[in-house]
């Protein structure tokens, strides 16, 4: 059984690591877009299934837009 403390521990560790990464990035004059992009790339590298979820979401959005503008029939 997972307790509230169990889910809090990974968050706290990640938060501390992000604070350290942000300190290093700002000391190195890294802009925020580069920093956030690097963080996202690191997350995807360790969780490649997220790309499938993003692609599925984008496809669904595109289909809905085509339906909205009348270029694709609804079933």
List the helices and strands and how they pair.
Blueprint: H1 4-27, H2 32-46, H3 49-68
Which properties best describe this structure?
elongated
Q: What features would you describe in this structure?
A:
The protein is an all-alpha fold and 75 residues long. 79% of the residues lie in helices and 0% in strands. The protein contains three helices and no strands. It has helices at residues 4-27, 32-46, 49-68. It is elongated and about 50 Å long.
Helix content: over 70%
Shape: elongated
Helix and strand pattern: HHH
Strand content: under 5%
Output the number of helix runs. Answer: 3
Separation of the first and last Cα atoms: 43 Å
Uncertain segments are none
What's the number of extended β-strand segments?
0
Indicate the structural class.
mainly alpha
Radius of gyration: 19 Å
How does the major sheet shape up?
A: none
> What is the overall pLDDT average?
89
